[in-house]
Amino acid sequence: MTASVDLADFLPAYLAEVEELLDSAHRHLLAVEASARRGAAHPKAVRELFRALHTIKGLSAMVDVEPIVSISHWMETSLRQADQAGGRLPEASVEPLMEGLRAVEQRMRQLASGKPAAAVPSGLLERLEALESSTTAPGTSRPVAAVLDETLALGSKLTPTEREQLTASAGGRRPVRVDFIPGAERAAKGVTINSVRERLAALGDLVKVVPLSGPVPGGGSLTFVLLLSTEAADAVLLDAAGGEPALVRPLAGEQAPAPVPAVSTPARLDGDLDEEPEETRRGSGTLRVEVSRLDEALERLAALVVNRSRLQRAVADLTAAGAPTRELRAILQENARQLRDMRAAILRLRMVRVGDVLERLPLLVRGLRRATGKAVRLELDVGDAELDKAVADRLMPALVHLVRNAVDHALESPEERRAAGKAPEGLVRLACHAQANGFVELLVRDDGRGVDGAAVAKRAGAPTPRTEDDVLELLCRPGFSTRESVTATSGRGMGMDIVRRIVVDQLGGELRMETRPGVGTTFRLRVPLTITLLDAIVFECAGGRYAVAVSCVEELFEVDASRVVRPPGGRGVALVERRGQAVPLVWLERLLGQGTAVAADAVPARALLVRQRGELVAFGVGRLLGQQEIVLRPLEDPLVRVPGVSGATDLGDGQPTLVLDLPTLGASRRSGGGGREERAT
Amino acid sequence: MAEVLVVDDSKVMRDMVVACLRPYPGLNFTHASSGLEAIERLSLSPYDLLVLDLNMPDIGGIEVVEFVRGQDKLRALPIIIVTTRGDEASRARALEAGATRFMTKPFTPDAILAEARGLLEEKRA
Q1: Which of A51, A61, A182 is closest, CB to CB, to B57?
Q2: Nearest CA in chain A to B70
Q3: Are A243 and A236 in contact (CB under 8 A)?
Q4: Is the Cβ–Cβ distance between A178 and A246 less than 8 Å?
């Protein structure tokens, strides 16, 4: 009998896991660097970094990727020394380690694209090998014998750093011992050492978990002792440990130690141990799924949605023919509800946390700091906001671009900032808020010099802009750059036009800018949560059938012809009163180029109210056909992509229906001055 | 059915071990992603073989081995260590703590299958 498995089959899974490990490694290396800059140790981050590299090395060895084995091995070696030095890493060691991570990442990309991993870059191993960890001993621990009574048989299992962590009483924290007794019944309810550890870690600084053997209530023979520094009350901790028979005891010097079972293990640390709970990527109940499988589920759903539309039409025909269809219609209604539920479930599966998507931005800013010599602080305030994976993937390059521009163009040098009475360190802040109408708003804000509209106009050879929107319009011209010369980071003439193309054209969102000279600039991106499954309003117009996402329509209203104001001579845009203001009324039929048959004084019966760059615009439409769920298929072919059309959908009759993007339709013509009769603004 | 507990903080590595041992008939696999989870599972259910990594996020494989060998009911449990740490010191420490076999990554599927088969048949005898 031989093993028939080929470990090369594990390559896709290997790539996915190593990608996560690299993310973790980057995050912890940045944390180590931040501590090193303050001259402090960060043992936790050093160990996490070590562990990530150690796992990468082992996995790479199994799938025979020798260059990554070598790189991770030498990185691991230098980190072992740092760990032995109490988690201290000289700041000068960070860059070679970053270089190592970049080299691993490059080789991962090569493997992912079907190429072999390139050999280790020249000189990298020597640079890693030459890293000398600081031999500075960690700070002297305060005496803790009183707190960790040796008779608890735990003191000897703690390193000096762990003791210090446990007894650090910053912010009113106190050292606590929680005893958790595992059991089959508790495990069946999901109360396991993993879940208890995660819950307690959320309530304080979980320093160590020690398994103790010996008789326990209920006939078992195992107790997990969890040592943490926390502000939480005993009752809260007990609840987190699954209630009784768990036990919570403050570790106080004057307290008589409770008897505990004998420890079965000699008191010795492994050297590579870590007291932290695992990352969520290994959390219980988490499953990694390839995006292609989610796409497949979406395709299946799309087929169901289309089929339901056909069924609905067939039932409508039967009803019209006088057939008894009451039960059929009830089934259809139930089927519609089930499809909505399934859509919501699939959408939830496709959601990724914005925080995870932005994980690489600190790394980007670090690189920009080095490249520009500017002092920059990046703040991320994204909470638990989520986005569809497809939206997140498209959005990321735009966010990278905005952050890069903020550091390179907007922020002043430390000297300039001091001269302007500002803190020498510039701030780039990225915030994200989910909105109720299926949109997410992201803000990229800097406290730099602001955008000088006049200078931008001069450079663009355009008249001085009157509004911030006009300035943004100039910035978004293809090839426009405010840079006098190309730098390593920007000024290559590929800037804001790309951002706008992604946000507005590809995602059907909105891009705005607010700027104040000397104070800073904020870019406001409003993008839909998802671009795949939509509730849409379907209507007829100009002899065709169109759909528009419900989420971008603020109101659907009957147009009162008596309240429409036409400009003299019938040229230009008519206005209609809405919400106390005069709103441009645009005949969609004319805008779609089919308006020759429309009389000049004709007024549409209905209109859809949407926002274009913050301003309300009403689009007159023809007959409404109803509201239904659609699966949006983007128009991939650049030859058929048109501004204002976000894609197409199949409503079940085999005829493709264009999905309009009203917030951008016609808006692009406003600066063109093409003399059209009707423009959206 | 023989029960095998596979312990590694890398899911891909656990899947690889399981794939290597699948050809052996009548094995049932349980995964644990940390040393503590392994100890908890070992205290709650009987196992016939433990395949264990050394470097894990909470407590290391050596401590798990020491814990297992400190339990009367687990004293005879065969333990295969699979680790990236191929140095002699690590091997010596693992075997001294009570590991039955010590394998360094990368190992071949045939090698781990042969070790597992040998230990399971020895246990049955």
Answers
A1: A51
A2: A264
A3: no
A4: yes
Look at residue A678 and tell me whether its pLDDT is greater than 70: no
3-class secondary-structure state, position B16: helix
Scanning every residue of chain B, which has its alpha carbon at the shortest distance from the alpha carbon of A278? B57
Cα–Cα separations (whole angstroms), residue A630 to A223, A265, A464, A649: 55, 62, 43, 7
| CA A404 – CA A389 distance, rounded (Å) | 23
- Whole-angstrom distance, CA of residue A58 vs CA of residue A464: 61
Distance CA B100, CA B78 (A): 6
**By CA distance, what is A17's nearest residue in B?**
B12
- How does the average pLDDT of chain A come out, rounded? 77
Residue pair A24/B46 in contact by the 8 Å Cβ criterion: no
Q: What is the pLDDT of residue A607?
A: 92
Q: Which one is predicted more confidently, A7 or A431?
A: A431
**Which chain B residues have a beta carbon less than 8 Å from that of A10?**
12, 15-16, 19
Task: Report yes or no: A62 at the B interface, CB cutoff 8 Å.
Answer: yes
A61 at interface of B, judged by CB pairs closer than 8 A = yes
pLDDT by residue for chain B (125 residues), tens only, comes to 889 999 999 999 999 999 999 989 999 999 999 999 999 999 888 999 999 998 887 788 898 999 899 888 888 899 999 988 777 778 888 888 899 999 988 888 999 999 999 999 887 76
Residue with tokens 């009451």: A326
Are A211 and B58 a contacting pair at CB < 8 A?
no
- Residues from chain A that touch B39, judged by Cβ atoms under 8 A, are 193, 211, 222
Q: Which two tokens stand for residue B110?
A: 């045939």
Contact (Cβ atoms closer than 8 angstroms) between residue B35 and residue B59: yes
Model confidence over A264-309: pLDDT tens digits?
Answer: 332 222 333 233 333 333 334 566 777 778 878 877 887 888 788 8
In chain B, what residues touch A270 (CB-CB under 8 Å)?
54, 59-63
For A324, the token pair is 């008894």
Q: Kind and range of the H or E element at A65?
A: none
Judged by a CB distance cut-off of 8 A, whether residue A420 touches chain B is: no
State the nearest Cα–Cα gap between A490 and chain B, in angstroms. 39
Cα–Cα–Cα angle for A586, A588, A590, rounded to 5 degrees: 90
* A638 pLDDT higher than 80: no
Does residue A402 or residue A4 have the better pLDDT?
Answer: A402
Q: Given CB atoms, is A275 within the 8 Å cutoff of chain B?
A: yes
Hey, are the CB atoms on B9 and A278 less than 8 Å from each other? yes
- The residue whose two tokens read 């007959």 is A623
- Taking phi first (over 0 means left), then psi (-120 to 50 degrees means alpha), and beta for anything else, what does residue A405 get? alpha
Write out chain A residues lying below 8 Å of B57, CB-based.
51, 274, 276-278, 282
Q: Are strands A426-434 and A376-381 parallel, antiparallel or unpaired?
A: parallel
Total Cβ atoms within 10 A of residue A579: 9
Task: State the DSSP code for A384.
Answer: T
pLDDT (0 to 100) of residue A274: 32
